[in-house]
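Box 3.1 A note on notation
Throughout this textbook, protein chains are presented in two layers. The first layer is the amino acid sequence; the second is a token string describing backbone geometry. Keep the layers aligned when reading.
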Amino acid sequence: MASTAAYDAIADWYERDFLGPGAEATDGNPRRLGPLLDELLGEGAGPCLEIGCGTGVHAARVRDLGWTPVGVDLSDGMLRHARGRLPVARADAARLPVRDDSVPAVIMMMVHTDMPDYPAVLREAARVLRPGGVFVHAGVHPCFCGGFADRGDPDAVVVGRGYLDGTWTRKSWSDRGVRAKVGATHLPLAALLNAVLDAGLVPERFAEQGAPTPIVMAARARKAR
């Protein structure tokens, strides 16, 4: 993920303001992603591991779907808020303290831009998933979000140079969001999808969220049996 100190420093702001009143009305906010979990994760049973669980905002929705949420995150500050919502452990997403083939579901929600080596994290997700287990990714849309995308006018997103660069940046069209505070790593769409395939995960379904230009791209995949 982005440096631990960065998220530790903004954890209280993230919980109080970013996830606060009105958050569900904002495209791309984690509190708006429940319908994507309903569609892509769906009902199930057993542990659902959330890699990069942050403050645990998705735990209640996962529980409502029948799963038992469990989270890992690198930031002590974020986990301080998460501990009342689900069992958690502090861990590097690329080195999970989880046995091979041990969990039936893994989710990663709006975190891939926080991880400097997301392909390595996908390989870890595939390692800990049971054969046939479900994996859900939801993240900022590679094509329309990033240092190259100016969303200052919601009706006319302007895409400039930088989409194919695949770099880390603090550049953002807004100074009110997470990215301007902690930066983000960008993966072009092809690199992101190829990383899923290279991890041994088989895509099943895709979804987008946000209007008029989507700000979130999500996918469901499974570990091959």
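The chain has seven helices and eleven strands. Residues 168 and 185 are 4 Å apart (CA to CA).
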